[in-house]
Design a protein that fits this description.
about 15% helix; elongated; about 150 residues
Length: about 150
């Protein structure tokens, strides 16, 4: 079963050129973020990572941004890796056609390969257009995942 995260971008005018960039990265957690970790006895900073998702879109001729991301799917995906609660907490922001989500994840005992495999069936679908003319771009999260 594929998990689908849908992001709709509706254009008010005809679309001639678009630039859409999506990144999905897992990074070491900062000292500041680690200071917010709770709910575990004797937490170790190396056992937590920051999952960072960023989307930037430039679409011509004035756009309306309608977003339905379903980030609960990411939480569910993380928590089904090995039956351990992996999603710790998250935050994000949106402004016009740009968005960012940061999620702290518990990674003790999980390999980079397991993390990548967990997102193999999770996709982001970006849709934009006017009237009956629609364009779609799909990103598979495992394919764009970068682990640092």
């Amino acid at each position: 079963m594929k998990r689908i995260i849908l992001l709709c971008l509706l254009l008010l005018a005809a679309c001639s050129e678009e630039e859409i960039n999506a990144s999905f990265t897992i990074l070491p957690i900062s000292d500041e973020e680690f200071s917010k970790v709770g709910g575990i006895d004797q937490p170790n900073q190396e056992d937590f990572k920051m999952l960072d998702f960023e989307l930037n879109a430039e679409l011509p001729n004035g756009t309306v941004f309608s977003e339905k991301m379903g980030f609960d799917d990411l939480e569910e995906t993380l928590n089904t890796i090995d039956g351990t609660e992996r999603y710790w907490y998250g935050s994000g922001w949106e402004h016009e056609l740009n968005m960012k989500r940061q999620i702290v994840i518990y990674t003790k005992g999980v390999s980079n390969e397991q993390l990548t495999k967990a997102f193999e069936e999770t996709e982001i679908h970006i849709v934009w257009g006017e009237n009956e003319e629609q364009h779609t771009r799909t990103y598979n999260l495992a394919e764009i995942l970068e682990i640092k």
